[in-house]
Amino acid sequence: MEFQVVVLAGGTSSKTLIPLVSEEVPKPLLPVANRPVLSYILDLLESSNLKDLIVVVEGKEAARRVSSWISSTYLDRLHVEVASVPEDVGTADALRAVAHHLTANDILVISGDLVSDVSPGAVAAVHRRYDAVVTSLLCASPVSGPSEMGSSSGKDKAKKPGRYNIIGLDPTSQFLLFVATGAEVEKDIRVQKSILSAVGEMEIRADLMDAHLYAFKRSALQEVLDRKETIQSIKQDLLPYLVRTQLRSEASTNGAQQSDENWNEKVSSGNNPTLFSHDLATGTAPSFHEFYALGLNSSAPAPRKTYKCCVYIAEKSKYCARLNSIQAFSDINRDVIGDASHLSGYSFSNHNNIVHPTAELGSKTTVGPQCMLGEGSQLGDKCSVKRSVIGRHCRIGSNVKVVNSVVMDHVTIGDGCSIQGSVICSNVQLQERVVLKDCQVGAGYVVTASSEYKGESLARKEKSQPQ
């Protein structure tokens, strides 16, 4: 049976995206170049002929909105079931919630906020080739936006100094031997002795991003999710668990189950001999999984059963980013109308921009390269738009400057406003002579005339919802 695909699309609870997300615009529908971010992964799956999908959305209202959009956009193109799970549920818990729908031998699990041109089919092919229990897509870590692009980039970097992954790979760069993320990176890194004993050497990489695209063997996935109820996150719990246990035999030589916590304090083989040395000399070295399966301490042991945790490392030329922060939202919008314009799905003009035929420009108004102006939007006289996306049906007055910003649909901007490095959500009103730098303005907010803000998040107070 072909791969089934589970897209984990989120909802309105993402704290890192407040005030961009709202009840009207849940995370899967956040616009990237005036298209919902979810459309990028759905189009990528369709192009790979992966059309049997379960899209998991947090919150019933968000799920209803996403379902309605998918039905109108992908009718007769994809077979999609939208499943609702509670807000703030972990990614592994989201998989548990849809487990009864999974019947294929292999499952692709993809984050709905991924914007990429890496073929999921390539990951699936590696997974099948090695009969892996999990295969993870790794991409080059993205570089954050240009220095003039504010949008809290400075604050983000100050808050999160260690937001990178430590990845351990075998010498062939096919098998995932070790993974540590986030806060773990601040501590001493410990690696399992059995891994080092088996492989003899390990390559440590800190320049790779877990793209949140995984192929799983369904039987193993469901077994672990059923048995280990404490596993809540795929990246932080499930993947490290599978990696730690991949070399554990069903029974060790003395009949006892090997421990998960068989650690060595340093990323080094220490006193262990390099076990591959005699095989490498012949040029016919087996993979470390094959070597381990033979047994280490016996001349004729029974083969060991091992999990295989594989990786597919995308070429550096491929685009891969996740919309999981305000900075990432700004960066991806900029990229998709800039260096990664092939992802946008639009045809660019001779001026290297996209101006919808129904948009209206006033006298002496300029829309620069790497800009997008949506359907039905109007700009007054002497306006300047640089490296920005402007949504549909916006009303922009005269003498307005928009630089390195994203303006969503139905926004009204008064005369003489200046907007730099900011995100303006739908139905916002900026009165005359407003100055915004590195700000986010939530949906429906009204900014009064002549106000100046820098590095602020402006949003209406949410009404408390009845439980």
TrEMBL record:
CDD domains: eIF-2B_gamma_N (cd04198), LbH_eIF2B_gamma_C (cd04652). It is found in: Cytoplasm, Cytosol. It holds the Pfam family NTP_transferase. Residues 355-448 form the EIF2B subunit epsilon/gamma LbH domain. Keywords: Cytoplasm, Initiation factor, Protein biosynthesis. GO terms for cellular component: cytosol; eukaryotic translation initiation factor 2B complex. GO terms for molecular function: guanyl-nucleotide exchange factor activity; translation initiation factor activity. Signal peptide: none annotated. InterPro entries: eIF2B_gamma, LbH_EIF2B3/5, NTP_transferase_dom, Nucleotide-diphossugar_trans. Residues 5-150 form the Nucleotidyl transferase domain. GO terms for biological process: cytoplasmic translational initiation. The keyword Protein biosynthesis applies. Acts as a component of the translation initiation factor 2B (eIF2B) complex, which catalyzes the exchange of GDP for GTP on the eukaryotic initiation factor 2 (eIF2) complex gamma subunit. Its guanine nucleotide exchange factor activity is repressed when bound to eIF2 complex phosphorylated on the alpha subunit, thereby limiting the amount of methionyl-initiator methionine tRNA available to the ribosome and consequently global translation is repressed. Component of the translation initiation factor 2B (eIF2B) complex which is a heterodecamer of two sets of five different subunits: alpha, beta, gamma, delta and epsilon. Subunits alpha, beta and delta comprise a regulatory subcomplex and subunits epsilon and gamma comprise a catalytic subcomplex. Within the complex, the hexameric regulatory complex resides at the center, with the two heterodimeric catalytic subcomplexes bound on opposite sides. This is Translation initiation factor eIF2B subunit gamma.
